Structures are given as C-alpha cells and as structure tokens.
Amino acid sequence: MNKIFSRRQFLAGTASASLALGAGTLLNGCGVLVKSGDADRVPNSSGTERPRMNVPANACDAHIHIADPRFAAVNANAPISAGMTVDDYRKLQARNGTVRTVVIQPKVYGTNNDCTLDAVKQLGSQGRGIAVLHPDVTDAELQRLHAGGIRGIRFSVWNPDNAVASIDMIEPLAVRISELGWHVQLHMSGDQIVDNQALIGRLPAPVVFDHMGRLPPSQGTAHPAFAVIAKLIERDKAWVKLAGAYLNTEIGPPAYADSTRVAKAWVDVAPERLVWGSDWPHVTEKTEKPDDAQLLDLLLAWAPDEAVRKGILVDNPARLYQF
C-alpha cells in the first residue's frame, strides 16, 4: 500500500534530524539538505506545499527548460526572463523531491545548445539534455553534445509559427543521431502525428511523444493519434511523456479530469514506456503558473500502483536517458 505523508507528518518525522542539523534545516524526500523556507519559494510555480506522494529515490523530472541570462537569446530584442536558471530549478527539486533531470533545449536559444549543455554540467551525473539541431550539424558537434550529456533531439512543430525546426528535418537528423543511441522527441499535435505516421514509423531511432501526444481534450483517446502511438509502442519504437496536463485540458486544475483520462489510458497501455515531466518553468502559462507539487501528485490518480509509479519516475527514465 502506498504510504502518503502530510506536510505535518513529514516535518514531525524529520524533527530530530532537523535539531541535529541546525534550526530551519530539513531533509527532503531524497535525503537532500534544504532550508525549510527554501522550498516555499519556487520561481515560476504556484503553491508552497510539498507533494503528498512518497517520491521514490532517484525520481526523474524528464521535462524542464533552463534559460540563463548569461547566454544570449537568438532574438536580441527578447531578453531572458528571470527565474529560469539551474539555481532556480533546484528549489523545485527541493520542494518536489526529484533528483534526476532532463533539460529540454528552449526555443529562445534556437539551435545553440550551450545553455542546455551548461545546465546539464551543473546538474552533474544526475542531468541529461535534449538538443535542437539543424541538419548541417557536424559530426564533431554531435560528439561534443554527446559528451556533454545530450541523449536526444527535439522537434517542437506543434505551432509552426514559432517552430525552430521543421518536419522535413526529422528523418535526416534521426539517421545521424541513431548512431549515438539517441532518440527523437516530437512535440506534435494529434493531427500532425496522424498525418506523419509513415515518416515516424520508419525513423531509425526511438521516438518520444511530448505531452501525452497533444490529443485534443474534446476527443482524448478517441483521436486516431492514440492508436498510432500505441501501435508504435507495440513495435518497441515509441515512448510517451506524461507532462503538460494543463496543455491538454478544458477542465483545468486540480484534477485535470480530461488530461487524467488520457494519462490513465497510457498507463493501461504501456506503463513501461512512460516517463514524467513537470514542464517547469511553464513558459506557455503567461498569467498564472501551475502548482508543481499538484502536478506531481496527479500520478497518484494516473498510476495508483506504487511500483508502476516507480517505473515511470525511476526505472523508465534510467533506460531512456541512460542514467
């Protein structure tokens, strides 16, 4: 049976350790020392409570973005927003109890992956990265990226108006990176997945579908993209990222009932092919940021079995990202 601790129970259980370590000091769910007030102030995140879920050791947040003002954006007229650095993200780690992290190259840097590489370096052995590339990337650059912890490339083509890469780039780059043991991460709409299923099916590298496949909330698993992805999973060619519940909902928090139905369907179909991500710092949400502990706790409804949750948070990402 899953053992869920309230904030009060957690604090009570660590009281003796806190006294020994000094006033105001706590151990988070992974044994990391944090100041009790630090976890209450996470940039680009709502709420202050820690998750109710008992987060397993080495849990992985497989989808975040880092933007650091030390690295210039592609558009010089669009300065880097505050609160998106590795130091900022560590506050979310302290709050949520995750340890491993996958940094996804943000659009503000185009195909210059230096900020992502720097973030992975700061995270050390517990960090991996996903790059954005142009087909003319050199072999030497691919080797540099691999040595720096990059394990895949992303194509975010869901919105063509701000896409850095294009669909015609997917196959030639997939051929290049397959030799490195990387995967292809696709951020496509459900309709795009259906329209490009032949292309996706012949790629020589595994495919990870962002944000549960971006299925329209009004259709959910009835959309044909669900069956397309499920068939790819049957062929050992695909994974699904349980992230972005707030991107695929007409109902909204706290339960995200429409997104939850899709997530539970993926858990039923292929729990061994799922990873979870917070999508911090939630760049699509311009007014109110989601509660990240609440997003993590959605796994309690999506995957009620604790062993399945451990697979999604620990074992599956360890295989996919080569931790």
Automatic annotation (TrEMBL):
<dbReference type="InterPro" id="IPR006680">
    <property type="entry name" value="Amidohydro-rel"/>
</dbReference>
<dbReference type="InterPro" id="IPR052358">
    <property type="entry name" value="Aro_Compnd_Degr_Hydrolases"/>
</dbReference>
<dbReference type="Pfam" id="PF04909">
    <property type="entry name" value="Amidohydro_2"/>
</dbReference>
<dbReference type="InterPro" id="IPR032466">
    <property type="entry name" value="Metal_Hydrolase"/>
</dbReference>
<keyword id="KW-0732">Signal</keyword>
<keyword id="KW-0378">Hydrolase</keyword>
<feature type="domain" description="Amidohydrolase-related">
    <location>
        <begin position="60"/>
        <end position="323"/>
    </location>
</feature>
<dbReference type="GO" id="GO:0016787">
    <property type="term" value="F:hydrolase activity"/>
</dbReference>
<protein>
    <submittedName>
        <fullName>2-pyrone-4,6-dicarboxylate hydrolase</fullName>
    </submittedName>
</protein>
<dbReference type="InterPro" id="IPR006311">
    <property type="entry name" value="TAT_signal"/>
</dbReference>
<feature type="signal peptide">
    <location>
        <begin position="1"/>
        <end position="20"/>
    </location>
</feature>
